[in-house]
Design goal:
The protein is α/β, with parallel strands linked by helices and 963 residues long. The chain contains 40 helices and 24 strands. Helix 31 links the parallel strand 20 and strand 21. Helix 29 runs parallel beside helix 31 and helix 29 crosses helix 38. The chain is globular and about 90 Å long.
Length: 963
Amino acid sequence: MAASSFSATSYISKSSIVDSSFNSEHSKNLLLLKFKLSRRIRPRGRNFAVTNVASRNQRLQKSPDQSIQETTDALDNGILVPDSESVISSIKYHAEFTPSFSPEKFELPKAYYATAESIRDMLITNWNATYNFHEKMNVKQAYYLSMEFLQGRALLNAIGNLELSGAYAEALTNLGHDLEDVARQEPDAALGNGGLGRLASCFLDSLATLNYPAWGYGLRYKYGLFKQLITKDGQEEVAENWLEMGNPWEVPRNDVSYPIKFYGEIVKGKDGHKTWVGGEDIIAVAYDVPIPGYKTKTTINLRLWSTKVGPENFDLHAFNDGNHAKAYEALKKAEKICYILYPGDESLEGKTLRLKQQYTLCSASLQDIIARFERRSGESLDWNEFPEKVAVQMNDTHPTLCIPELLRILMDFKGLEWKEAWAITQRTVAYTNHTVLPEALEKWSLNLLQELLPRHVEIIKMIDNELIDTIIAEYGTEDLELLKEKLKQMRVLENIELPASILEFIVKPEEITIVDSLEEKISEEVTELPKTENNDLKVKEEKDVDIRAKVTFDPDPKLPQMVRMANLCVVSGHAVNGVAEIHTEIVKNEVFNDFYKLWPKKFQNKTNGVTPRRWLSFCNPELSKIITKWTRTEDWVLNTEKLIELKKFADDEELQSEWRKAKRMNKERTVSFLKEKTGYLVTPDAMFDVQVKRIHEYKRQLLNILGIVYRYKKMKEMSGDERKEKFVPRVCIFGGKAFATYVQAKRIVKFINDVGATVNHDPDIGDLLKVVFVPDYNVTVAEVLIPGSDLSQHISTAGMEASGTSNMKFAMNGCIQIGTLDGANVEIRQEVGEENFFLFGAEAHEISGLRKERSEGKFVPDPRFEEVKEYVRSGVFGRYSYDELMGSLEGNEGYGRADYFLVGKDFPAYIECQEEVDKAYRDQNKWTKMSILNTAGSYKFSSDRTIHQYARDIWRIEPVVLP
């Protein structure tokens, strides 16, 4: 429902997941109804027939009442655990009565949807119970705002968390299908790109598993980022079609909608109250996705917003006149907000669309959060209690606009004064920083913000004024040069004049004259010079000059006026955290050092983590069984500290043998997967060397592929016997997307594929070296590649990777790593043991000096680096010119040149470290021990552990276990 203004009371009925009167008895009755209806269903196609005769006969011996009683008994015991018969009944019910496909056949796509919907029934039962209990208890709740949630496939994860894998596998077998085949029908939800979104999804899993009251908020992208195709020209992008057949996991909440406004103007009434009027109005509508915890009834919510306009915005007259584009112009403007994740922002239109996306997420979410707070508070509403009931976490700078939006609602709609609203906001919001890269420390044009969100710019200026007052109070006005520098570095508004009232206070009308001691110093220095006629003249001229200086605070008219979103987050939030120990130190000592000096207690570290359910227990069942056997417990899935027990058995030959067999099974699975996806057939006898992540220069896929090229060149220079003796067979696997407008990253993708096309068809090399790029890398691809990997590469330029999460997933699966001292690599190496990690490269504290050395022309490249560049330029990998790519590694300065990411500097250390990898891999007992110790040392990197720290130190929420 569109509305001209925000009112909590008008949305009370909208923000509930279910009617509070819904209870478990209704759930049981619904299950009973579905069961009885399913008994009347007759299969319409041969694929629907029950194939297991023995199971069928056993089922026929039970009455419907007996079967449903087993189900409801399980409900009464706390968790719904149906047997395979009940599962069959539920799947058949949905195939018949919740149809997304025609009724004639029960083929795999239909089987997937019916299976997913049957699981969703059970999730909704727990979901409703969770929601109602949290409402009843009025607990403090955390809200996680993120532009990305990289969920991956939901079916097997939900079945695993509900501990129903056996029941569903048996049920689907009886219905003529295999559970794995059914699960493969599910597309990955295209709601994220890389580590930022996957971290958010791991956090939701852990929040539910640990029984914390929390919700996630994001956008429901129709097409997501893009689907990556690999052609002869490199990467090509096409729209992702993940919603083409619908999404069985989401529940549309057509009664949960909020008005969103853009443009317009601010009108001040006679009473001083400000109103934002006019402009462009859209509606944000909620779609809810249940997130189940592991071995718990707690099921939390991921609320995704979609955008639309009301029917009154459709111009029927224009349509009937044949002006169809004009007729649905408003509709298309609204809908396109949720079309694409990270639309290209090279154009003004692209920037505007991104900003609209971010504001839509923030405004809809804050309106929803406030409405829920008001409903829970009832007549005892006290806005000062808001931070005691609500914690808002901003996942990077994308949700920054929730800060001025919260202030806007509190002041413009709830009647609070600035100081009270500002204090409430600072106690409510917190900020996670994910990068030290300038491109990710968002800045927005003040003019664009002013046009799109005029009221928010007014509020941001008020925040900036508060900050200016704080800076002046801290540093005083005696040293104006120091004050000017602090204001320049710390202000939210960049290159924007100071308010007149502040200028009058800090800038004196008279000029500031440099003291006479400077003249005396000049005189003393001159007397040391030999007297000449010229010197006498120079001294006289210098003494005659009245040396004066004046500090001005004027903006530079040549530079743009910007709003710094990261600074806004730091100023407005009560906590700022980095995501790895080294990253947090860089945040404190470099990125936000001025703020850290001002508010040291505000800054803290929260090393990232990954859920051990999806990233070990479910994706690597072979290894999981071995871990359970040797630790003598399944508790490690919830308490990863139990993994440390494996250290005691790392030298045990029996464990090592079992470990290698599990790895072999995973590698054979990877072989089949690579053949299906790329057409390349590789041998599982080779070392699987993997680098999968977003394609970016700082992640240095270029260093990896140049190392492979060097390896290939050396192989070609040897005889067959020599190369077999020198080199361990390797399959080098890449995966990841380059952003559509990131030209250099797309060149790297093409280069990798061109090298693969040459190497993989070279009969001299055979199985000694293969290079495979897996297209359209996503969570599902990772779940196959990570368990089958022997070596993983995390080789970013030191100090540039905030944390990484793929490194944690690889370690958890017993994959040994080669990497730099960057991000979470530092902590992983500490935990798994220095001898079980292949380290190379410059360290973070050296990087700035090395870049300075390069700019001064002092860098001398290693001959092997020059050799490999010339080899690439020789045309051995095809006709495409790689001059631009190789040129980026040359020169001493210039945009896109001068090897900013130090590929050349680290290249010799990298190839020498790879020789150590070969040497270690030849000793399979040693390698297996290293693998075991990597899994044992990964205990620290569970997202459960990370969430406990967020809950304790930032959100201050407690677990709430359902009765």
